[in-house]
Automatic annotation (TrEMBL):
Keywords: Membrane, Transmembrane, Transmembrane helix. Residues 355-370 have a biased composition (Polar residues). Residues 355-402 are annotated as: Disordered. This is Uncharacterized protein. Residues 374-394 have a biased composition (Basic and acidic residues). It comes from Xylaria bambusicola. The chain crosses the membrane at residues 240-262.
Length: 402
């Protein structure tokens, strides 16, 4: 239905008695009265609008024959043919119907009655496991009933009916208002036809085959790829680049692999070709485990092998030196066997061992032990253990007697 620059006056006529008090007292005739709809009338006033063309629209009711209008100016007169409305206010009647459906119900019984708004809302609650009393007071307990109350509240909280929209917007709610220039109204039929054809042209495309070369096909693989690559900002996810993570991971693995293989390559070149033998020996000897070997070997503890490998080793069952903490500012390694033997030989009781240990820690010197052959050094270690065991047994016996 086309429109014109006019002020529509809406007179709603509700079938429910309660709405007659807040609406109008208009009662439609039998030809307009409908039991299954809300009926309302809207009146269109011309407001001295001059139409440039005639129209067959029943609401605007424009004259079929033009009228000559003379415009008088300061220095000239201008005659124009225009078309005038035949009625000061032309009415149009509308019937609004509503229907509520529950898509969770299968079959044909999932929709309520198609009728007026009040009747449609009155017949809908049973489909949503609630009653009209609970729905109207927002006290529905079932989940479908709460959804119906939430959705139905829109019809009572906001004016979304046709008559309410026309009552709020007035003439601005008509499409013809956009083509009004001063007091002149362009052809409404041509504008209405152009709008409808634009919808059809968008849906079916152009009728001229030569224009298809200019058409953009959004169903191509490239278009679909572009559509699927859209990025939507959301606080529920975090976006970051994997390049940094992969770079750190791969670069770190390469460094670790080079560090592991470099010593093996140096060892191979040193043993097979004698390449930089001193540098390789210094590198290997300065390893953490080899430095510990040097410390224990310096005090004569252990018979060592694999001295050029990453991990040195001693003979099975050999003892290593212990840490002497007599001087807390200068802790040193001491040979544990000689130290304990010298201390226990002098002790008369367990209480004297700490004092004698302090005295013995400075007198025991392992420098001569390094000059002995491995067999003789092992024999001396075994001989040193015998007085320790005898002394421990004797002290333990005296302790029991006491």
């Amino acid at each position: 239905m086309a429109g014109v620059n006019s002020i529509p006056i809406s007179f709603p006529a509700f079938l429910s008695q309660i709405f007659l008090k807040s609406g109008s007292d208009f009662i439609p005739i039998d030809a307009l009265f409908r039991q299954d709809a809300d009926t309302h009338l809207s009146f269109l006033s011309g407001n001295d609008v001059l139409y440039l063309e005639t129209s067959t629209d029943d609401w605007y009711r424009i004259a079929k024959e033009p009228t000559n209008v003379t415009w008088v100016g300061a220095n000239e007169e201008m005659n124009t043919q225009v078309y005038l409305p035949t009625e000061p206010a032309s009415p149009v009647g509308c019937a609004d119907q509503y229907q509520f459906c529950n898509t969770g119900i299968k079959g044909n019984g999932r929709c309520g009655p198609l009728s007026s708004l009040r009747d449609a809302l009155a017949g809908a609650p049973l489909l949503f496991n609630t009653s009209y009393a609970e729905f109207s007071t927002y006290e529905a307990e079932s989940e479908p009933g709460l959804l119906l109350a939430y959705f139905g509240n829109v019809f009572f909280s906001f004016d979304i009916t046709v008559e309410s929209i026309l009552g709020q917007l007035g003439g601005h709610g008509l499409l013809s208002h956009r083509t009004l220039s001063a007091a002149y109204q362009e052809s409404m039929a041509a504008r209405f036809h152009a709008n409808i054809m634009a919808f059809i042209g968008t849906a079916v495309g152009p009728t001229d085959d030569s224009l298809f070369s200019l058409r953009t096909d959004y169903a191509t693989p490239k278009s679909n790829k572009l559509c699927n690559s859209r990025k939507i900002r959301s606080t529920a996810y975090g976006s970051f680049s994997l390049f940094g993570l992969f770079f750190i991971l791969i670069f770190g693995m390469v460094l670790a692999l080079i560090s592991y293989l470099l010593q093996l390559v140096s060892e191979f070149l040193c043993k097979r070709k004698g390449y930089k033998a001193f540098a390789h020996l210094e590198w290997t000897t300065n390893g953490a485990l080899q430095l510990q070997r040097l410390a224990h070997e310096e005090i004569g503890m252990g018979t060592w092998k694999k001295c050029l490998d990453t991990i040195p080793a001693t003979r099975k069952g050999e003892l290593l030196g212990s840490l002497d903490t007599t001087d807390l500012e200068h802790p040193v390694h001491r040979p544990c066997i000689q130290k304990v033997a010298a201390t226990l030989d002098k002790a008369q009781s367990f209480g004297e061992t700490d004092t004698l240990n302090t005295q013995a820690s400075g007198t025991v010197s392992p420098s001569a032990a390094n000059q002995l052959p491995p067999e003789e050094r092992t024999s001396r270690e075994e001989q040193a253990l015998k007085p320790i065991l005898r002394k421990e047994k004797s002290l333990s016996s005296n302790s029991h007697k006491t």
